[in-house]
């Protein structure tokens, strides 16, 4: 949690707007981070987590396109329907707004322990969603400008690694912090070609006449 807070501290100056919402395990603490957005609110799903509002992450009590920053701290890891949670986040975030998601990396030692079921309880029974898959989901919801920061299970600040070694360990971090910006949806008006826009006036019959069927025999006159 301390390392996640450190990464969030670096991301907060990039968020602008009027309202920010923090959801998840450490929402109340994160809502106090220094940010250009002054109106912050912590939403949790449990009274014991000390949030400002208790809510259901699958049905956020927020108006559409009203929030400039949404921070999800392991909400998707603990959700039984992460797709619906992301759809709700996409609904409430303004165009140009930012979403920040913390999650557990399945391609790490923690992910291996979870796969082998060597440990029980949290976080080992969480979803462990890969950030590559999360990027695909967010892309479908009109998010882009992705930035991913690894979170280690051991403090990287105490390590003196060469650059090539750090590049090897970065994807194997126990967790990650992903940031994405909601893209502005543009409506393109399709214009017809100038030749097709010329309407030819028709005189006489209005429209095409239906041709008689070749299989029908003409009526005989008595």
Question: What labels would you give this structure?
Answer:
Rossmann fold, 222 residues, seven-stranded mixed β-sheet, alpha/beta, 24% helix, globular
Written account of the structure:
A 7-stranded mixed β-sheet has the order 3-2-1-4-5-7-6, with helices on both faces. The N and C termini lie far apart (99 Å). It has helices at residues 2-11, 27-30, 75-78, 82-92, 109-116, 131-140, 163-169, and strands at residues 19-24, 39-44, 53-54, 67-73, 93-104, 143-151, 175-182. It has a single domain, classed as Vaccinia Virus protein VP39 (Rossmann fold). The longest helix is centred in the middle third of the chain and has 11 residues, at 82-92. It is 24% helix and 23% strand. It has 222 residues and is an alpha/beta fold.
The third-level CATH topology is: Rossmann fold
Question: H/E element string?
Answer: HEHEEEHHEHHEHE
Question: What structural class should be given to the helix and strand makeup?
Answer: alpha/beta
What Rg is obtained from the alpha carbons, in whole angstroms? 28 Å
Structure at a glance:
This protein has 222 residues and is α/β, with parallel strands linked by helices.
Secondary-structure blueprint:
Elements (H helix, E strand, L loop, with lengths): L1 H10 L7 E6 L2 H4 L8 E6 L8 E2 L12 E7 L1 H4 L3 H11 E12 L4 H8 L14 H10 L2 E9 L11 H7 L5 E8 L40
């Amino acid at each position: 949690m301390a390392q996640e807070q450190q990464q969030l501290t670096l991301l907060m100056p990039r968020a602008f707007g009027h309202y920010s919402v923090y959801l998840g395990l450490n929402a109340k603490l994160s809502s106090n981070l220094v940010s250009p957005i002054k109106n912050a609110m912590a939403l949790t799903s449990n009274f014991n987590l000390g949030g400002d509002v208790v809510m259901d992450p699958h049905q956020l009590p927020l108006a559409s396109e009203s929030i400039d920053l949404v921070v999800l701290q392991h909400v998707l890891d603990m959700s039984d329907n992460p797709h619906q949670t992301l759809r709700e986040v996409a609904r409430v975030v303004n165009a140009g707004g930012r979403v920040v998601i913390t999650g557990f990396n399945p391609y790490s030692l923690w992910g291996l322990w979870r796969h082998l079921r060597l440990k029980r309880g949290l976080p080992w029974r969480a979803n462990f969603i890969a950030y590559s898959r999360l990027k695909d989901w967010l892309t479908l919801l009109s998010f882009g400008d992705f930035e991913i920061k690894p979170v280690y299970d051991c403090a990287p600040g105490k390590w003196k690694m060469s650059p090539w070694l750090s590049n090897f360990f970065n994807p194997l971090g126990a967790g990650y912090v992903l940031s994405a910006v909601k893209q502005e949806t543009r409506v393109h008006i399709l214009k017809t070609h100038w030749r097709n826009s010329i309407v030819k006036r028709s005189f006489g019959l209005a429209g095409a006449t239906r041709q008689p069927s070749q299989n029908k025999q003409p009526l005989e006159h008595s």
